[in-house]
Design brief:
Blueprint lengths: L1 H9 L4 H14 L8 H4 L6 H9 L4 H15 L6 E10 L9 E5 L4 E15 L2 E9 L3 H4 L2 H6 L11 H14 L6 E4 L1 H4 L2 H9 L3 E6 L4 E4 L2 E4 H7 L6 E8 L2 E11 L7 E8 L6 E8 L5 H10 L1 H14 L9 H28 L11 H13 L5 H29 L1
Parallel strand pairs: 1-5, 5-6
Antiparallel strand pairs: 1-3, 2-3, 3-4, 6-12, 7-8, 9-10, 10-11, 11-12
Helix pairs in contact: 1-4, 5-14, 8-10, 13-14, 14-15
InterPro entries: IS701-like, IS701-like_DDE_dom, RNaseH-like_sf
Protein name: SRSO17 transposase
Organism: Streptomyces umbrinus
Length: about 400
């Protein structure tokens, strides 16, 4: 039982990037940073971390609700956009909840991976994830025993990624929070149920679509790419999709009105790269007509989710878990989201209260994390602490090795 707990949550490392840092520090003769969170935090064993993620009595969904309120309070923006997207963590084996061979943008190919859908609140003051749902493939939901072993309900029903998005957006709105817009990529833009659910609630959206997506205009039904070829030169406008690290992201944009007897305004939005000519397409809806610049702003907000994934993984360890069961995954992820939201909230408050002088860029989440670790946490890693963890690792590996030999002998 102890061994199973260690396999699930005992070795919570900082992941692949930290492993590379560890090896580089050792080659350069620098002090080697501890490689488990419990060790890095100054604890003598991983028992406390195991207990927090696996056995302690607390509700991750209640923490999620508190996190959502915290993010909206500190990053509040009347023009904020909810961005929905999924990200995957590459995994080995088949025992980790939700794992199967599937495409993940993290690797850019089909891998043995675990995928989750996230909802990100993106406003002018900052952005942070406010909800998450694990994508559980049919290979899992069709096997009740496998679900039970991973801590899922035996009657867990399969849900597509757009259905998970509807669930999270509904939770956000039902909690009393307001948003005028939702953005997402082709996975979500191509789903009629998601679009219908948003229109029913009067929530606008700018959702990416495929070039083969068909829309109905006053002249008939056409593919999106066929309509783009028919646009005259004067239909395009140069507009910024938002400021990036290297300046404004300028593209050429055009919008085509889509007639519909239902209330609201609908358009096909087309984006053209000013250098390559590459086109991208968006299905748009708003309760009332809005200018092209508003649709472009919402479309540009979708990149915030990529920044959230990057900083959430790089600064808060969103993807650095080695957990197997659903409850432990849910707890780890919500704590990582909370840590990232804290950095985003501090950044927003600092920018508002203490604007940086012209000679300095404003404080970033990366810099705030470094300062927080250096000035607040101050973990103690003396010789006795490091020798103690060395002893623990050797003892743990000896027990694991003995367990493997016993299991092998039993199977033989």
């Amino acid at each position: 039982m102890w061994r199973a707990g260690c396999l699930e949550i005992g070795h919570v490392r900082f992941g692949r990037r930290a492993g590379e840092t560890h090896r580089r520090q050792r080659r350069q003769g620098a002090p080697v940073r501890p490689h488990t969170i419990a060790e890095w935090a100054g604890e003598s064993t991983p028992d406390g971390m195991q207990h927090l993620l696996g056995r302690a009595e607390w509700d991750a969904d209640q923490v999620r609700d508190d996190l959502r309120d915290y993010v909206v309070e500190h990053l509040h923006d009347d023009q904020a956009v909810l961005v929905v997207d999924e990200t995957g963590d590459v995994k080995k084996g088949t025992g980790t909840v939700g794992v199967q061979r599937q495409y993940t943008g993290t690797a850019g190919r089909i891998e043995n991976a675990q995928v989750a859908v996230y909802l990100v609140y993106a406003g002018r003051r900052g952005h942070a994830a406010v909800d998450r749902e694990l994508y559980v493939p049919r290979s899992w939901t069709s096997d009740p025993d496998r679900c039970r072993d991973a801590g899922l309900d035996q009657d867990t029903a399969f849900a597509t990624k757009p259905e998970l998005a509807i669930l999270m957006i509904t939770r956000f709105l039902d909690a009393g929070h307001h948003t005028s817009w939702v953005a997402g990529d082709e996975v979500y833009g191509g789903n009629p149920r998601l679009r219908a659910a948003l229109e029913e609630r009067g929530t606008g959206y700018v959702l990416a679509g495929a070039c083969s997506h068909e829309v109905t205009t006053q002249a008939g039904k056409f593919r999106a790419d066929a309509l783009a070829r028919k646009l005259p030169k004067q239909a395009w406008q140069k507009l910024s999709a938002g400021a990036g690290a290297k300046g404004h992201r300028f593209y050429d944009w055009a919008a085509i009105e889509l007639p519909d007897p239902a209330p609201g305004s609908r358009q096909l939005l087309i984006r053209r790269n000013r250098t390559t000519g590459e086109l991208a397409y968006y299905r748009c809806y708003s309760p009332r007509p809005v200018p092209l610049s508003t649709l472009v702003r919402v479309a540009g907000s979708r990149w915030r989710v990529e920044e959230t994934f990057q900083s959430g993984k790089g600064l808060a360890g969103l993807d650095e878990h080695q957990v197997r069961r659903y409850a432990s995954w849910s707890r780890w992820v919500i704590l990582a989201m909370l840590a990232h939201a804290f950095l985003a909230a501090v950044r927003a408050d600092e920018h508002a209260r203490h604007p940086a002088p012209d000679t300095l860029i404003p404080l970033t989440c990366n810099e705030i994390q470094r300062l927080f670790i250096t000035l607040v946490i101050r973990p103690v890693h003396d010789t006795a602490h490091r020798l103690g963890w060395s002893h623990w690792r050797r003892r743990h590996k000896a027990r694991s090795q003995a367990s493997r030999y016993r299991r092998q002998a039993t199977q033989a």
